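WARN retry 2 of 3 for item q-0093 after timeout on previous attempt; input resubmitted unchanged.
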Amino acid sequence: MITNPTPTDSVLTNTPPPKLGLYIHIPFCLRKCHYCDFFSLSSSPESRTNYINYLVNNITSFPSSPAAPHCNNALVDTIFFGGGTPSVLSPNQLNSILTALHSTFTISPSAEISIEVNPKTHADYSALKSIGFNRLSLGLQSDNNAILKHLGRLHTAEDFFAEYNIAQRYFDNINIDLMFGLPHQTLESWQSTLKNIINLNPAHISTYSLIIEPGTPFYNQTLTLPPEDIERNMYYTASQTLAQAGLNRYEISNFSHINKECKHNLKYWTRQDYLGFGSNAHSMVNNVRYQNSSELEYKTSIEEVVTPSERVKEQIMLGLRLSCGVLITPKIQGKYGDALRRQELLGNLKITNSHAILTPRGIDISNVVISEILNFD
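OK item q-0093 returned
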């Protein structure tokens, strides 16, 4: 364990313990999608077993790692199993990883414990619930079978709806991943998808625009994509439709019912500490970033020490993604106050007594707005 209290610990000073998030990367997929640039690969039962053994050993040996002293007495309040496709593992394999986490860290009884699920893996939702998961993220992307096939997804819309009907018997906190700006997707088909998914009444919906990344099959293909103005209307349509259904936008791409925000992802956007275990996973602890190599028997190295000036830049870049905006601290005001006011005059920001918030116009060109703020002279 890395959490033995000493007389100077928060336990005896009546201050709350620091919070910590854990990310677990499972790099296995049934088949890689045509748009995906995450580290993932197909696998045999033997390679999955070997990886889990290596991963468990890496978790239980964490107290001897360089980052461990900064995690002493931390309370883990979020755990996220991502990939790849974590649901390719059996409940027993997943449980062995959770057991290692519980033996190494102090985990809050109310911790948010999430797992990404592909509908085609036909997960045992009852077993997932019984071993400790309390949040699911189901990858749908589209309910149009022709589009799903073009994306390289193995599941059909019918597979998804059947899986959701089972999953919701055991979980009341389910996210559904959707994508827009897809090949051959129209505004009308996107509206239909939103309507069909809203009828399921999920707790959370993520809506991401397709980005063509180098190294993916899509990168070397000629794709029929929606025009830029249609793609922008798709985002507006999602925001308006989901808001009418009671799902509030709390981040540029994420919508939820009250108190159903993804607590783990909020750690990334608010620069809280998190540890990543598994191939190609990242960590940030005490303003030091660590990166695991992209191999099954991965190694961890220090990626960078985040300087005070870089921390302020990250606060702006990440904070502006949130619907509540970025808190205007004295450091932000001192260095970027003029830049923020300029963007307000351009109609890209709304500035309150304490926060800078992107306007709808600002969201459209958020990358440009953030770049101009950080490079303002």
